[in-house]
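The protein record quoted in full:

***
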Amino acid sequence: MLIIHCPLCGPRADKEFTYGGDANRTRPSDDADEAAWYDYVFLRDNPKGWHIEFWQHAQGCRAWLKVERHTVTHEIRKVTACRNGRNG
């Protein structure tokens, strides 16, 4: 079990959270071509090592967080609250 330290609620079990995806991806502009949208929607890297992810404290304060997590050891190095939902 992962323990995620929510900046608003304190340490909580991972089952209170919902994974929101890779926080490093940039959404294409609305007028981007089909290839850019295909890459954004369907293609994913499978990184080994430190990775920044979105998580939502779904069964708590409902805040969106950016979590820096090691994909092999699941160690969590840093958690920060997003300023305005998942976008920031």
Summary: The helical segments are 34-42. The chain has a mean pLDDT of 93. The longest helix spans residues 34-42.
